[in-house]
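for the writeup, i need someone to sanity check this before i put it in the appendix. the sequnce is what the collaborator sent (i think, or maybe the updated version? ugh). structure was predicted straight from it, no edits. if anything looks off just tell me and ill rerun, i have time this weekend
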Amino acid sequence: MENALKGIRILDITQAMSGPFATMLLGDLGADVVKVEPPNGDQTRSWAPPYMNGISSYFISTNRNKKSIAIDLKTWDGKEILRRLIAQSDILVENFRPGTMEKLGFSYEMAKAINPKIIYCSISGYGQTGPMKDYPGYDLTILAMSGLLGITGNPDSSPVKFGVPIGDITTALFAAVSILAALYNRKQSGEGQYIDLSMLDSNFLVLTHQLLSYLSTGKNPEKLGSAHSSIAPYQAYRTMNGYIVITVGTDRLWEKFCSAISPELIERKEFKTNVGRVSHRDVLEKEIENLLKDKTTYEAYSILVKNGIPCAPVNMVSDAVNNSQIKFREMVLSMETDYGKITLAGTPFKMSRTPGEVKIPPPWLGEGNDEILFKLGYAGKEIQEFYRNNVIFRRKKDD
């Protein structure tokens, strides 16, 4: 079986999370990804500890299926290398502040002059246009600006950040979708295009029903912890030794839930309908936690799942890693590399003809220099001259 994007070449000029995650997904789908790094490498190479065999675990999480070339783009030879890479690429992805690529001499228009069919994706905090376009943006600032942080956490808590950079990851998913759509369009039209991908746009859309709640009522949505604004019971509940999430989305499920956990509850008029349960959410929460206080999380989970109630224990990462479904779906895998054995997440792309695949481990800085430059037509003597003149760089753990 082949990968879906076999033969597609991506020039990855990104750092941190949103850009690298997007290009990693496309690499999982078979694209040939060349990661262009500055002399000191992607900034996440230093976001440590922890390390895995000498490489930042943070860097490993988003940079598999890529080859690294480390170039000083402020040098004439470095710029010439990038020009040749653009000429041979289908897609360029960058996530600098607006205007940076233009200053380097590689804006979309400049790249298009080199390769008219290039698909060029710029990822930025606030987009390439508008009054805030020059503002710096990171995951937390975007979550705050979009409104998402304002509805996250318990009612009496300060704003709570999600446990992973969800704003970056959301943006990466929209970037990957946009790039695939542009590839399809290029197949139809023969033309490349420019993609202006804003983290703020992406995460504002993620407000979904909470945004519509405000637009419908003029009232800001409340922070509800793990609870749902329009469904109850739908949150995490305390058990004897932890927490379990219970999600009852219909009145029929409510009847099944009551039969499984407490038949007396079904007679409570205030809980007969979802509207009633939402209106009496606080009372309902106390009733359910009272029923669960003498049960372990596993006991409660076993009872409810056996009766068809959507529920799940609130796992730690260690629990998730050892989950039987995660293992069956091969979502944790190990790779042998020249810097030792590493363990990382599997790929979610389970496809019958063109599945995703993890082929290449995250690279050392500049590991692919020679291979990439040879393919660009440079001779061995020229490459050695680049090293001597500090045009390209390479660094391993022991260097």
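The first helix runs from residue 18 to 28. Residues 234-238+243-313 form a domain with the formyl-coa transferase, domain 3 fold (CATH 3.30.1540.10).
thx in advance!!
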